[in-house]
Amino acid sequence: MAEAYLNHLCPNHYVAESAGLEPGQLNPLVVKVMVEEGIDISGKTTQSAYDLAKQRRSFDHVIAVCDKASGERCPVFPGLSKRHQWNFPDPSAVAGPEEDQLAQIRIIRDSIRSRIESWCKEVCKSA
Predict the structure, then answer these.
(1) Euclidean distance between the first and the last CA atom of the chain, given in angstroms as a whole number
(2) Could you read off the pLDDT of 19-71 as tens digits, one per residue?
(3) β-pair partners for 85
(4) Strand runs labelled E in 1-127
(5) pTM score of the predicted model
(6) What's the maximum distance between 2 C-alpha atoms anywhere in the chain?
(7) Contact at 8 Å (CB) between 59 and 39?
(8) Cα 1 to Cα 25, 101, 115, 126, distances in angstroms
(9) Rounded to whole angstroms, how far apart are CA atoms 5 and 114?
(10) Close Cβ partners of 60 (under 8 Å, ≥ 6 residues apart)
(11) CA 97: distance to chain centroid?
């Protein structure tokens, strides 16, 4: 979600790429709540931070979007980039009936969007 919002809200300054500890599957409920925002991420493929490191990719900023409070491990990316840690609950960890999950994921989505909007206002104006 953070990658999609950054690419959507600050496209003239940054190109975001998302990577985790291990590539997995896109959460269909996350895809659904992002479509509600007019952003289709259904065609995205997942990748690992290690894959990007093997390609010797470099980034100005590395933003870890994970929930340290719940013990979630965050990827580490080598290099001289500016590092940011943003704690958000993992949408794949929400439970309950689908409508309850969607409601919880919308809250996470809206929090991520708000954080990206604030970050873009701070960083993009100086880029």
Answers:
(1) 22
(2) 877 778 899 999 999 999 999 999 998 888 888 878 888 788 888 887 765 55
(3) 64
(4) 61-65, 82-86
(5) 0.84
(6) 44
(7) no
(8) 14, 16, 11, 24
(9) 10
(10) 14, 81, 82
(11) 24
